[in-house]
Design goal:
This protein has 277 residues and is mostly helical. It is built from twelve helices and no strands.
Length: 277
């Protein structure tokens, strides 16, 4: 091949069952047809010529797409993204440089697929640097595991990628953000539909209003004695009737009523007439 050293793609996870089979080498006749069509397309920009070039180079797209299989995306979707990259390569290729088209198109196709995983397949948006590092870490994990015969350590992955161990850990921590879980899915470790995640979500706490009321009363009743403040808490926060407050504290209902009226007046002075009890 001419046009300088070939740009090798970075390691990618292998599909189940081993490495994806490389595309069969194109015949000399096919390669010559591709060169001829690329020259014609460069001059005419004919949609029909571009469609024929896509057809002739489809095996390259299928081969590259299979290298990205088993990442949670349907292979057909990955291939469609790969064909977008192929079209970009066809549009940008300059026949006058005499480069081999497959050498030029490979990084373009792979780059488009990587952008798809980086920008569109995340359930939660995270910084692009972490997304890119996560793809590199996954590739390094599989390469090192194949070489070492065991799961590599964080330090080994970091040394392999020339990253700090903290950067590897940060990338792994964002991995769960790639996929969303349905709220109707069973909770972890359970199969009963009645134990769906949505059933475990918190509801509005009716006691929050009482907490707010207690804070208001404590500020408004700061001049009262501890016993008198206790009376007001039972009356307005716990919402007990005057007779029950009197019974609990061993005082008359009249005393409770008097303290209540004094509290209402204090509240109105501090917070206005809109405060009603």
């Amino acid at each position: 091949m001419s046009g300088g050293p070939r740009q090798e793609p970075s390691p990618a996870p292998e599909p189940a069952g081993g490495r994806a089979a490389a595309p069969r080498g194109a015949s000399a006749r096919t390669r010559e047809e591709v060169r001829r069509l690329l020259r014609e397309y460069h001059d005419t920009r004919s949609p029909a010529l571009r469609e024929r070039l896509v057809e002739l180079n489809s095996d390259l797209v299928h081969y590259i797409a299979r290298r990205f299989a088993n990442r949670g995306e349907p292979l057909e979707d990955i291939e469609q993204v790969g064909f977008l990259g192929l079209i970009q390569a066809i549009d940008r290729f300059d026949p006058s440089l005499a480069n081999e088209f497959s050498t030029f198109a490979t990084p373009t196709i792979m780059g488009e697929i990587r952008r798809h995983f980086r920008d569109r397949s995340w359930a939660v948006r995270v910084p692009r640097r972490l997304q890119e590092n996560l793809l590199r870490v996954h590739g390094a994990e599989q390469e090192l595991q194949s070489r070492l015969g065991r799961v590599p350590s964080i330090e080994e992955i970091a040394a392999h990628l020339q990253l700090e161990p903290d950067d590897v850990l940060a990338a792994l921590e964002v991995s769960p953000a790639q996929h969303a879980i349905s709220l109707q899915a069973p909770a972890a470790g359970e199969s009963d539909e009645s134990s769906a995640l949505v059933e475990r979500l918190g509801a509005e706490d009716e006691g929050l209003d009482r907490v707010e009321m207690r804070d208001v009363l404590e500020r408004a009743m700061a001049h009262l004695s501890p016993r008198e403040r206790r009376i007001m808490a039972l009356r307005f926060v716990d919402q007990l009737p005057q007779t029950e407050v009197a019974r609990r504290l061993g005082i008359s209902q009249m005393h409770v009523s008097r303290l209540q009226r004094a509290a209402v007046e204090q509240l109105r002075k501090e917070f206005g007439d809109e405060v009603l009890v």
